[in-house]
């Protein structure tokens, strides 16, 4: 039986992501307060798999998760990815009205997606950060202070006895967050034909190479990265680790060729896992270069437009 650790407490989006995993109904789940503690539960052997947020379609990556993956000591591989829609509600203890709200607690990614609403409706409210949305809701439920509110998933209001004062307060109704399930490094699950693979190119390996050289190793094999993130190594300005995702499985020939091509360039990529990719889209591969000029500006005209200061050009 899988034993899941997830970014808790109950009512987080991470919990919703866990629920979406195929074996969730037959697994045990334990909430942890922070991303680090969630991953530590797996490293310490208390749980087999950790579910943590990786990236949001509006606010971008979750630094705590990338920090852990980049630190090199995780010894964890991605076993699954889950994408779930995220919608936000403002909630407070029963009896509190919107006019009385003085402090709004939430996860930084939730605050970041509700800035417009907060500045329009609660411009004077103090923003307080919590380690998760449901953590913020729980703090408000337990807080004796009047005027406290939280931004969280509507389900967290029920869980912590709060009243929803406003819902759908995020900037984008279609916001999505990508979560990953991480477990101890080991052989990847068998290829399905709809897989994704993740790699970390550590700063010390990428060294003086340009990003073009690094990404060239992928495109030379016809493999287009679907996700690239540079992440500061902390050593000095300009020293980055690179996270790269590609469609395909480590067992696939072209993915294997990429790994070998990187190695020949002196870059020992760290493998972060092959797993069934979320979404049913086709495998991403490098498109053929544009040859004709049909239906658009010629490449020369486009360059000329940019050189003359035009960013937006009517075709
Ligand atoms: O705090 C949560 O509920 C999480 O799962 C992290 C998060 C917070 C805001 C948007 C997406 C994920």
From TrEMBL:
Q: Which reaction does it catalyse?
A: prephenate + H(+) = 3-phenylpyruvate + CO2 + H2O
Q: Might you give the EC number(s) for this enzyme?
A: 4.2.1.51
Would you kindly state one Gene Ontology biological process term found in this protein's UniProt entry? L-phenylalanine biosynthetic process
Keywords, A to Z, come to: Amino-acid biosynthesis, Aromatic amino acid biosynthesis, Lyase, Phenylalanine biosynthesis
CDD domains xref list: ACT_CM-PDT, PBP2_Aa-PDT_like
Where would I find the Prephenate dehydratase domain in this sequence?
Answer: 3-184
Which terms does the record give in the GO molecular function aspect? prephenate dehydratase activity
For the keyword DNA-binding, the answer is no
Q: Which domain of life is it from?
A: Bacteria
TM ranges are: none
Q: Could you say which residues are annotated as the site Essential for prephenate dehydratase activity?
A: 177
Q: In which pathway does it act?
A: Amino-acid biosynthesis; L-phenylalanine biosynthesis; phenylpyruvate from prephenate: step 1/1
A cellular component term, taken from the record's GO annotations: cytoplasm
Which InterPro entries does its entry note?
ACT-like_dom_sf, Chor_mutase/pphenate_deHydtase, Preph_deHydtase
Kindly give the Pfam families that the UniProt entry links to this protein: PDT
Mind telling me which NCBIfam families this protein's record contains?
Answer: PRK11898.1
Q: What is this protein called?
A: prephenate dehydratase
Q: Which organism is it from?
A: Kitasatospora camelliae
């Amino acid at each position: 039986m899988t034993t899941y650790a997830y970014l808790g407490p109950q009512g987080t989006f991470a919990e919703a992501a866990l629920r979406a995993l195929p074996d969730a109904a037959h697994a045990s789940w334990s909430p942890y307060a922070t991303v680090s503690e969630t991953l530590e539960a797996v490293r310490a052997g208390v749980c087999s798999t950790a579910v943590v947020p990786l990236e949001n379609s509006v606010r971008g990556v979750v630094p705590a998760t990338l920090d852990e993956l980049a630190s090199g000591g995780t010894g964890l591989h991605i076993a699954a990815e889950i994408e779930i829609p995220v919608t936000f509600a403002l909630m407070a203890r029963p009896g509190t009205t919107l006019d009385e709200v003085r402090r709004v607690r939430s996860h930084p990614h939730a605050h970041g997606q509700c800035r417009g609403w907060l500045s329009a409706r609660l411009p004077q409210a103090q923003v307080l950060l919590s380690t998760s949305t449901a953590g913020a809701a729980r703090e408000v439920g337990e807080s004796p202070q009047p005027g406290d509110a939280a931004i969280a998933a509507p389900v967290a209001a029920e869980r912590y006895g709060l009243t929803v004062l406003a819902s759908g307060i995020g900037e984008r109704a279609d916001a999505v967050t990508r979560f990953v399930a991480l477990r101890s490094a080991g052989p990847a699950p068998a290829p399905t034909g709809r897989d994704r693979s993740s790699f970390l190119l550590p700063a010390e390996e990428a060294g003086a190479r340009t990003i073009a050289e690094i990404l060239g190793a992928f495109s030379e094999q016809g493999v287009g990265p679907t996700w690239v993130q540079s992440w500061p190594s902390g050593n000095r300005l300009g020293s980055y680790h690179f996270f790269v995702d590609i469609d395909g499985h480590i067992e696939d020939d072209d993915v294997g060729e990429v790994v070998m091509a990187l190695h020949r360039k002196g870059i020992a990529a760290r493998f972060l896992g092959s797993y069934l990719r979320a979404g049913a889209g086709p495998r991403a591969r490098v498109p053929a270069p544009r040859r004709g000029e049909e239906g658009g500006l010629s490449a020369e005209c486009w360059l000329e437009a940019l050189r003359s200061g035009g960013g937006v050009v009517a075709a």
